[in-house]
Predict the structure.
Amino acid sequence: MSASRLGAIRSRVTAVLRWFAGISGVDRVLIAGAALGLSILVGFFIVLGSGRVAECQTAAWTMPITGLGFCYNPFEVYFILFNGALGEPFYLWEPALLNPGWLPITLPWLGFMPGWSPFNNSFALTMSETTLLIFTGLSVAVAFRAGLFNIGTQGQLVVGALLTALVVIALAPVFPANRAGGVALITIGIAAGALGGGFWGAIPGALKAYADANEVITTIMLNFIAANIAYVLVLEVFRAEGSSVVATAYVPDYARIGPWFFPTTGNFAEAALLIGLVAVVGLYLFLEHTSLGYDLRVSGIQPLAAEYGGVNAKLTTVRAMTLSGALGGIGGSMWVLMSEGRWVESVPALGFDGIAVSILAGNNPLGVFPAAALFGVLKGGALQVGFQTDVPPELIGVLRGLIILFVAMPEFFRLIGRRFVPEETEREQSGGDGAGGDGAEGPGGAKAADNGGETGA
Amino acid sequence: MNPAVHLDGITKRFPGVVANDNVTLTVGRGSVHALLGENGAGKTTLMNVLYGLYRPTEGRVVIDGEPRSFDSPRDAIDAGIGMIHQHFMLVEPMRIWQNVVLGNEPTEWYGLRIDEDAARDAVRELSARYGFNVNPDDRVEDVSVGVQQRVEILKALYRGAEILILDEPTAVLTPQEVEDLYDVFEELTDQGKTIIFISHKLSEATHAADEITVLRDGRNVGTVSTDDVTSEQLAEMMVGREVLMERSPTEGSPGETVLEVDGLFAEDDRGVEAVSGVSARVCEGEIFGIAGVDGNGQSQLIESITGLRTPTEGSVSFRGESLDEVGRRERIDRGMAYIPEDRQARGLVMEYDLTQNAVLGSQHDPAFTDGLRLDWGDATAHAESVIDEYDVRPPNREATAKSFSGGNQQKFIVGREFERDPDLVVATHPTRGVDIGSTEFIHDRLTELRSAGKAVLLVSSKLDEVQALSDRLAVMHDGEFTGVVDPTTVTEEQLGLLMAGERLEDDTVDHVGVSRSNDGANSADDGEVSP
């Protein structure tokens, strides 16, 4: 019977997912590290392969022994990717002592770049990306913890960003043009962003709660609506005079979140990162140490138990989506007040990257910071690789994608495992109550075939 | 002549549970045998052992007098056993003949091509022989569920099955299709096939089977010939009446009414009416029991009372106030404790540890929160006191709920709910799957609560339990109370009749609270159980 072979495959898949679902925190860190190494190994060969088919005057790297030449040097690519993201604290040199003539390869040695300061433009770019992704990552994570898949962080960010820009520009004349006025304007701007994003998140929340509309669909649609409404509004009403792109006017300089130590050209502000870290800790405390957070978590992990525990499912859905949207909106505020200084039509896809950040972080707020930092490093490093080598940007995109894919995949399996497999585990264990095995009584041929695979194996 | 199937002392253990305990079963050739029992009685497990899906821990399977050991369903099929699962395994867009021959196709051109004509003819011939009236060229998705079931039976017959196992065959059929299925049974047995079917409905077993085996808690309670048994006796066998427990005397008379249910109607998840006009009241200092075979609307009634389900008609009031507009959380706050039927889906968050589970339902209670912050210190203390007082083992509040055995999960829920200091305790199957010691412990606590003047609503399918604990006992059948009786004076026969849907016009029975539903006494619903 083919069903039993199918059952064997199914049961194996189930077992693997179950294993992923059960791994501990330490395991996860180790797996993430191993995945990073593996992705670099795979990327190494992809760089080599592309370097072999590409055409160039001189080989960037010659393989020892074989003497084969390659247009791109994979060692160099990965070195620049990580080193460049930090503003090049290290350099490579080749001490003659370690490299006698009879060695087929030269061994490079890491040297610390004298005069390197962390407050450089490259590192600022990395940190700026990290900061923005913290907010969008938290946005996706909080919805996920409530069992909701918010694809709409991008739209919430667009709305929040536009509202921030408009409110700050409109209120700028009211406040004095000094630091105090700036702080007031920034506070109001962030509040406006949170409000706008929160509202934009509340819409799919309410649609889900009261009209049973799937939040994945509605949030995707609201992304388009947000982007286009914002575009038309700026194009027709709020466009800055003389601007060649569709953009609002700049907010006044004193109302921008500026750096303390970093160069102003880096578009990064330590204060914004600080706000991000406060949000990380705040969200963690909210989820783990408040009644509402408890409601939200239980709704996400076991909706039936939440209902039993007196959690209002509809209200919790709306609350979670509003909070998620507000975080996305604050991300938009930061983008305007820290990075751009105005709203421009080319909003980066921070909201979508936030989904990957959240998954990478296991939807744990505390994990969002390192996950966002990895994304930031890859973004900053990729730019440096583009500047310093002939490697085409598409190939760098592939390498970034590989790293993210490899590091996120175990976490992704874990999520799937937790979401879909535990039901069966629980059923089987519910047999443990001695009543005679609900699992065994569970009807359904697929289930039966599943067990068939297990016993057959 | 050897019996077609002889299961000899089958024991099947899963980690932590005995699903089948020394079950012996003999089915004669050409007969229809019903396997009757409540959910979780071990019926499907036993059949999965016969079909080779599980290997028995102990015991042996003897087919036609020959001991067999099945490693997989393939071996069982080779031995002439076919199983029709409750959910059909058919490829819907494909034609009936394709489905029947799938995996065993007759081929031509040296196996390169399916011999369609031969396959079609084979299916047509089989269908005609057993009077199935199936057109091999119809697509499965176009035919009714009843016909789909026949296609499943044809699949088994095509593979040479002599013994057919059907898992809850009537669950998906309309009444007419059920009648047709019985005709199919007759046709099959006339031609020497043996049929075993699983059911938890009395009426089906008495209608269709020659012999009935009742399983309860994984044990064979008895095999009876359909001609020698009444529905009442079967109901009793299913529900069980093990050791008669000591009744603890009622102290004092019941006080004020705590819970009042008036003319309640409710639907199940599929939108079918499950509760049809139930009225009841539960007073301070009494245990009101609800007995009956599972699935007669008890779950929906309880969910309507506790706020998990919105009744379609009728009302529930608590301490004289209507609960129509009152949500689940408010009901908890007003003093309603609830031991849910499904402890793993509802009663506990399986992935969370016991500390986190200790506040489920009280996460907004001032005892644990100042309105914003949840005090995990208080929660930890609470979890520890529940673990300690209710003897939850192992006493580790940091272990996830799912790592505990069912009995210990239940003790933790019971402890958490009783410690709320509620006015009303709604306990559904509080001792299901709990070992004897813990059962006694939970019983003692329930009677203590009564002595403390609390109202208790107890639902259990264990007859001895409800009878020993209740002060008044309602019997539920098909969404209605067939009677509310005094558990000290009611006889076994009377309870059996009530559970089977008969009503008693007897003076010994106190019909408190069933006035509304009494109007249609002995109406259509009785037809279902009389053979």
Summary: Residues 5-239 of chain B form a domain with the Rossmann fold fold (CATH 3.40.50.300). Confidence is low (pLDDT under 50) at residues 507-531 of chain B. The two ends of chain B are 30 Å apart (CA to CA).
